[in-house]
Amino acid sequence: MRRIGRLLLPRRPLQRKCCETEVEVADCNVDVIREAIDCMRAQGVDVVCGRWLIDGSPNVVLFALNSSYWRLDSWKKEFWEATHIGSPPHDSETNDAILFGFLVTWFIGEVRSRMYGDARCVAHFHEWMAGVAAILLRVRHIDVATVFTTHATLLGRYLCAGSADFYNNLPYFNCDVEAGNRQIYHRYCVERAAAQSAHVFTTVSQITADEAEHLLKRRPDVVLPNGLNVVKFSALHEFQNLHALSKEKIHSFVRGHFHGHYDFDLDKTLYCFIAGRYEYRNKGADMFVESLCRLNQKMKQEKSDVTVVAFMIFPAKTSSFNVDSLKGQAAAKQLSEVVTEIKNSVGSRMFEEALRLLRLIKQRTKEVGHFLKGADARPR
Q1: How confident is the model at residue 230 (pLDDT cuts 50, 70, 90)?
Q2: What phi-psi label fits residue 284: left (phi over 0), alpha (psi between -120 and 50 degrees) or beta?
Q3: CA 91 from centre of chain
Q4: Which region, left, alpha or beta, applies to residue 57 given φ > 0 means left and ψ of -120 to 50 means alpha?
Q5: What is the pLDDT of residue 1?
Q6: pTM above 0.85, yes or no
Q7: Is the dihedral of CA 346, 350, 352, 356 positive or negative?
Q8: Burial of 52 (C-beta count, 10 Å sphere; 0-12/13-18/19+)
Q9: Is the dihedral of CA 141, 147, 150, 153 positive or negative?
């Protein structure tokens, strides 16, 4: 990009409540983007530009979908005529995806029309909700390279949630029938069309690539695993200090949680975690529980003195707090405070006594010195 440089510009729907706390609103200082935003605002689109309040403070453009809701019917008609993909009126998620897709396509088209020379533009879309724009950019022949990434196919998620023997039966699924039976055929068509129309199709693992090949009918061009930001832990000693602090917090929680049943050595304790959406099979919770069961049996057979504590972290509805756990945490905290107070008190007294003892030792040392000098001065 000769004029606007290497610019990463995320685009997403605007949510006012989140925007107030997560985005620093500011005018864009890149001419072509500012002009594109002004053009869309002049036609009634509510657009917010600024920086995300996260590491790196990336630029972001947010579109308020409700400001263009009156265009939904005409855009759905245009999408049907271009792709023959329809959508039911009651599916609000698909309606939002269509609104967002048309707004993003509009925005990219305005930006691209203002770029000159041999400037190049790449648009990267994740998951089917953003796939409408990937399709429209190809349909409208906008000079933009497109990349579509799926982290797990939509139909695959539904099949796994339905207790299907997914990977063993992967080559034999009738995708159209399965999507229709689950009333997601229109969404499946959007995802499949996005994967087919993108210049480059990527996914995040080899097994997801196999899934996409059978369900979306295209083998991903690139498998790009999810990355981790390791820059913040580049110093080994800093990472070790954070690890020690975090592990001590877990130790503290375990002491309280197992209050009254705490009969194991934390130095010989292993912690296992699983976290994600509350989907028992999709997120592997069933395999996690089964593996713990097998591990428990094996450790009993070998009479191991190691204890394994497993954490299952899923956001789900709760009816009340675990009273026994709260009581245990309170008792452990109170005991820790009492012990700390006694330790500080005893430590302070030991320090004072040590100072007094040191003074007495010095005094006795001087007396012994004077005595020895006197003994040396006597005639023999």
Answers
A1: low
A2: left
A3: 27
A4: left
A5: 31
A6: no
A7: positive
A8: middle
A9: positive
